[in-house]
# Entry
Amino acid sequence: MPIQADLRQVIYALSDALDLVGVDDIAHGKRVGVMAAECAKAMNWSQDEVLFIFDLGILHDIGVSSTAAHHHLTHQFEWTGSPAYTRFGHDLLKDFCPLARMALPILYHHTRWDVMVREGVSPQVAIPANLILLMDRVDALMAQHYTSGKILQQRDSTRHEITIRKGSYFSPRLVDAFLQISAHESFWLRMEPRALAGYMNDMAALGTPYAATPAELQQLAEIFARIVDAKSPFTFTHSRGVAQVAARLGQLLGLAPEQCEKLQIAGLLHDLGKLRVPDEILDKPAGLDQNERLLMNAHSFETKQILRNIDGFEDIQLWAGSHHEEPGGLGYPDGIDAAQLPIEARILRVADIFQAMVQDRPYRQGLSLEAAGLFMHELQKSGRIDAAVGQALQAHLPELLAAARLEDSATAEAA
Ligand SMILES: [Fe+2]
Ligand SMILES: [Fe+2]
Ligand SMILES: [Fe+2]
# Structure
């Protein structure tokens, strides 16, 4: 059966991945979404507009996968590095029909109100963009106080910081709505983790269900693969290469077309959990120390956590979350062995290792065909990868090398 899922549910689940970039503060996008939706309600926006601004809030940092950039953005009131990230976010969404309307507000969500007025940015873009900026800056001012239990003590100084920027950074009308709604305790107490979770559930139940087509799911997974891959120059086409190799291996091993389609999505999303790994660990050219290794190894578990909330993605979450499990049971995070590992998870493991070996990195070239073949053969001999999958790989090495490097399809020129 072709893959089926509700697009909003997929988007809400994947927004969890974006929030992981905050490393130990993993709710920035959600808080911005909730605050923006509350302001929109205070201005009597329609339910559709409230839902739109909420979704824009949870996705507004879609261009940010670097933990360092996230830190700048959430700790400095104005950061000169922000245009590269708003541009990337815009570019990711502009051609994806269901979310294309968000592209321009994302592009402008770090532009001051007076500048947008001067440049003649249309109100349909400027108002949502500025509401996100306003909530984003409120969250930056509050970020350090959420865990101290002193949110309410902090609200007056935050309201003051916003008020003095009325008409310059922020639209006067939006500031008025914010001051009105934020006079109430509930506005702030909603930012506590348990209240946030409840709000997310309420919003998820509000919208009209939207059955995504397989092509839309594929496109959305592709967008998130680009976010993960953009995190490090070491991995700039990794997820997309893994997806291609895995889908092709699936075909070679006789899997049904629908399974190969799901395998492709699992490949695109398998390293989502890496969004939580600090840049300096991911970018380290040499071996990791023990603590760094522990942080790194949590990523496949995180991937599973993100994907488990999507009805219809049961297989995908299992395969993607198991790409570091080994046939002998010595992998992670569950240490399950070959007997419990579906063939698709074993395929994904082979595709993952193979792509990483043949990808060029800033400090070294990818392995040659012969060297990669030999390396994979050694892994197979020692029982660390599945034998049948390993044999299929060896029998089609040149073709799979091209797939891993995105050299064999239309995606190559986009790389
Ligand atoms: Fe933000
Ligand atoms: Fe991984
Ligand atoms: Fe990977």
Summary: Confidence is low (pLDDT under 50) at residues 410-415. Residues 238, 242, 270-271, 352 surround fe (ii) ion (ligand 3) (CB under 6 Å).
